Structure formats: structure tokens, C-alpha cells
Fold this protein.
Amino acid sequence: MNLVICFSPTGGTKKIADYAANYLNFQLLDLTAFKDHKDFNFQQEFDYLVLCFPVYSQNIPKPVKEIIKKLKAKCYILIATYGRMHMGNVLWEANKHLQGRLIGGAYIPTKHTYQEGDYFKDYQKLNSLLSRAIKKETKQIVIPKLKKNPFADFFPNGRSRYAIKIKKNANCNKCNHCNRVCPQEAINFGTITKDCIRCLSCYYNCPNKALEVKYSIFLKAYLKKDKIKDLIVY
């Protein structure tokens, strides 16, 4: 059994996962919502598994860390998308928790969640990576350890809470759709809890545009930095 799994709160990473699933003719499973990854049967073992997820502040998103530790597969391909700021060292970190062989990996530059921009569109550049699963390759690769901001691991949730404020406005009708799409179940009828990871799934998916986002001056300054556009395939 083969599978493509994606974690994609705002849909950018899912575009790449969709392409991978179609190219490989694998089933695609979206484990973004809390209920979906809570109900998933982690006792299943797969032959080839492609996992697509975004980079958050140079780190693996908290829900993805928990998913990686539970997955079982003989061979993995890891695809990490980053918002053209910094990819951190997430592939190397994720590889430490895999129960199986890592046969390929990629860092893909795409639209940043907190900025306007274009999504990654050069899908054909991923064909050689994905073809390893079609050819049933099993050779384990070595992911190099990249340089990472030494402060990236210190209080990532606290830093994001300071940098981004999310508040509901008068449009909220308490439909609680925000809670259903939240990976952490960190919002209840428009009210954010301490478990929020600032993925903005609630903001982008609210049918009533009842949530407002405000960035700190420090985050605004950071987002003005020169962008990185490197597609790195291992």
C-alpha cells in the first residue's frame, strides 16, 4: 500500500501533494484538521509514503512532529515547503524520527502564509524525485544538516503569539467552522487558545471573514528581507 500524506492549513502544500499523488497514482490523505490526524489508523504500514508539510519558523509544525513519530513505512519521501524565507533544518530533524528508509527529500520554495506571492508551479522538477517510488528504489539517502537560526528552537509558539494577533470581529456567527479546520483545536467560536500555532487555517477558511490578523512591526520587518528561491532536492 502506498500513500501521499499532506499537512496544509492554507492549501499551498496541498497543491504539491496533489501533484505528487496524481503523478504517482497514490491515494492522497489530508491530515491537516485535528480530527483527521486524531482518527487516522497509525498501525497501518505502507510500502512507499510521501509526506508533504510546511516549515514554520524554521521548525516542523507541532502536529506534523506527532504524525511523523507514529507513521510506519518501508520507504519515505519527505517534501518540506517554505515561504522563501528560510527552510531551517526540518528534513534532517524529521529523518531522525522515521520508522523506515528515507529515499528522497526536497525543500520547495512557495508562497509564504503571511505574504502575497506566487505558489510553486514547476512541478515537473519533482518528477525525478517522485520517480524513485515508481521504480521501487530502496536506497537510503543522507540528508545534510543545514545551518539554522540558533534562536529558532526557543519558544517558537510564544514568539508567534507575540508576532501575530488573531481576533474575531462582528461577522462571527459562532458557526465554529474555525475549530473544525484547526490542526490544534486551538480556536473555539472565534476565540484563540494558547495552543494556537498561527498557521492561519482559521483565517483563510472562515466563510464569514470573521477573523482579523495583525502583524507586529518586527514580523513586518522580517518579511521584507530578501527572499530565497532555492529548490533543493536530495
